[in-house]
UniProtKB/TrEMBL annotation:
Residues 23-71 form the Methyl-accepting transducer domain. GO terms for cellular component: membrane. One of its GO terms (molecular function) is transmembrane signaling receptor activity. One of its GO terms (biological process) is chemotaxis. Keywords: Transducer. InterPro entries: Chemotax_Me-accpt_rcpt, MCPsignal_dom. This is Chemotaxis protein. SUPFAM superfamilies: Methyl-accepting chemotaxis protein (MCP) signaling domain.
Amino acid sequence: MNAPQPNLHVKARGSSELARIVRVNEEIKAIVATAFRINLMALNAIFLAKRAGNAALGFGVLSNELRRFAQDLTRNMSSLRDMTSGSVGSVTGVVQYQRNSSILAEAIRLSGDGVPGAREARRRGAARLAAQQAKLRALDIRLRSAVEETQQLVELGGVLARSAKIEAAYGGTFSPALMQVSTDFAEVIAQIKRSLEILGKERLVKD
């Protein structure tokens, strides 16, 4: 009755790791979509600044910078997405090796040395498992480093949004519209910061 328990534990652990990767990918997709939205907002802001003329020159410059920020953010998040794209296969491999090891361990326990090649197969499986786990840990470190780099970029985006809000005050009759756009920038960037905070707490593997 107790023999299946190790295998159930392996399945539960694998499901947990796959769930973490799904959460990471969902947050990445959400940030990519938001970056696209910022790009459209920046284009609208640039057009609005041109209509406002000399009164909104500073706002126009900042809108261009915010558009570049959105493009840089999209590149960063695309890189993150590429990093995690192969992780599902790695986790599946880890789970399979863990399951096989559990089955072999139970076979050895029940029959001693009566299963030909069981111990050697378990050693080979353990080596493959260690390699897959090392691969996931390396990916996890790269992911965290990339998230930290992106967080720094988003801090710059926040500074640009605050500066745009200041410049909007000098937009003359266009000031209310420019102020609304700059407020929208700030809110969307704050949303990205929250998503990155969630990403920063996620781990592809648990020690």
